[in-house]
Amino acid sequence: MSLTKLKIWQVIAVGASALQEGQKIESPAKLNEVVFYKKWGGNEVKIEGKEYMFVKFEDILATEA
Known about the structure:
Strands 1-4-7 form a 3-stranded antiparallel sheet, with no helix packed on it. The chain has a single domain (3-64), classed as GroES chaperonin (10 Kd Chaperonin, Protein Cpn10, Chain O). The protein has strands at residues 6-10, 18-20, 23-25, 34-38, 43-47, 50-54, 60-64. It is built from no helices and 7 strands. By secondary structure, it is mainly beta. It is 0% helix and 48% strand.
Protein backbone atom coordinates (compact mmCIF):
# COMPACT_ATOMS: atom_id res chain seq x y z
CA MET A 1 0.00 0.00 0.00
CA SER A 2 1.45 3.38 -0.94
CA LEU A 3 1.67 6.26 1.53
CA THR A 4 -0.81 8.23 -0.61
CA LYS A 5 -3.50 5.77 0.50
CA LEU A 6 -2.77 6.32 4.21
CA LYS A 7 -3.74 9.06 6.62
CA ILE A 8 -1.58 9.99 9.60
CA TRP A 9 -2.71 11.61 12.88
CA GLN A 10 -1.49 11.90 16.47
CA VAL A 11 -3.61 10.20 19.14
CA ILE A 12 -5.05 12.67 21.69
CA ALA A 13 -7.58 10.29 23.30
CA VAL A 14 -8.31 6.56 23.32
CA GLY A 15 -11.74 5.05 23.76
CA ALA A 16 -12.73 2.04 25.83
CA SER A 17 -12.22 -1.55 24.72
CA ALA A 18 -14.55 -2.94 22.08
CA LEU A 19 -16.29 -6.29 21.72
CA GLN A 20 -15.87 -8.15 18.46
CA GLU A 21 -17.39 -11.60 18.06
CA GLY A 22 -17.55 -11.89 21.86
CA GLN A 23 -13.85 -11.05 22.30
CA LYS A 24 -12.63 -7.94 24.14
CA ILE A 25 -10.33 -5.91 21.89
CA GLU A 26 -8.00 -3.21 23.22
CA SER A 27 -7.04 -0.18 21.14
CA PRO A 28 -3.96 -0.78 19.00
CA ALA A 29 -2.99 2.85 19.65
CA LYS A 30 -1.84 4.60 22.81
CA LEU A 31 -2.05 8.25 23.83
CA ASN A 32 0.40 10.52 21.93
CA GLU A 33 1.34 7.85 19.37
CA VAL A 34 1.11 8.57 15.68
CA VAL A 35 -1.32 6.31 13.83
CA PHE A 36 -1.47 5.34 10.18
CA TYR A 37 -4.91 4.31 8.96
CA LYS A 38 -6.88 3.65 5.81
CA LYS A 39 -7.49 6.72 3.63
CA TRP A 40 -11.25 6.18 3.71
CA GLY A 41 -11.35 5.14 7.36
CA GLY A 42 -12.54 7.35 10.19
CA ASN A 43 -14.86 10.31 10.56
CA GLU A 44 -13.41 13.80 10.41
CA VAL A 45 -15.02 16.39 12.69
CA LYS A 46 -14.25 20.09 13.07
CA ILE A 47 -14.76 21.54 16.58
CA GLU A 48 -14.06 25.22 17.25
CA GLY A 49 -11.89 25.40 14.13
CA LYS A 50 -9.76 22.33 14.97
CA GLU A 51 -9.93 19.10 12.97
CA TYR A 52 -10.30 15.78 14.80
CA MET A 53 -10.55 12.25 13.46
CA PHE A 54 -12.52 9.38 15.00
CA VAL A 55 -11.13 6.04 13.80
CA LYS A 56 -12.30 2.47 14.44
CA PHE A 57 -9.72 0.07 15.86
CA GLU A 58 -9.84 -2.09 12.71
CA ASP A 59 -8.99 0.90 10.48
CA ILE A 60 -5.64 1.50 12.23
CA LEU A 61 -2.90 -0.09 10.13
CA ALA A 62 0.18 0.83 12.19
CA THR A 63 1.38 2.98 15.07
CA GLU A 64 4.59 4.89 15.73
CA ALA A 65 5.58 5.83 19.29
